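Key result, reporting period 2: structure in, sequence out.
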């Protein structure tokens, strides 16, 4: 949803369905993990209003990464599909090339 391939709303596939990640507690560590898992050096969080709201499932909420994880699934979270969010709170990132 970004103007180029290194920025946009965070979406993740689980159980054969794509969904979003809520921005509750979403910060630099979480953005870094996502961006590094996509092959970038790192990144930082961005407001979802810049990239539009997702549709469908909201998969993750209250994601807490240490920063050294190789994927967002390895970070602590409330469990798949457990959230109190709307798509107004979709997380987004801008990755560093």
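The corresponding designed sequence is given below.
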């Amino acid at each position: 949803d970004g103007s180029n391939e290194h920025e946009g709303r965070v979406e993740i596939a689980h159980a054969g369905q794509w969904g979003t990640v809520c921005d509750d507690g979403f910060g630099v560590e979480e953005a870094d993990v996502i961006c590094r898992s996509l092959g970038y050096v790192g990144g930082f969080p961005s407001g979802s209003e810049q990239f539009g709201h997702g549709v469908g499932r909201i998969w993750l909420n209250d994601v807490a990464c240490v920063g050294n994880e190789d994927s967002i699934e390895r970070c602590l979270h409330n469990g798949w599909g457990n959230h109190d969010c709307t798509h107004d709170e979709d997380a987004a990132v801008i990755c560093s090339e």
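The chain has a mean pLDDT of 93. Residues 32 and 64 are 12 Å apart (CA to CA). This case is discussed further under Risks and Mitigation.
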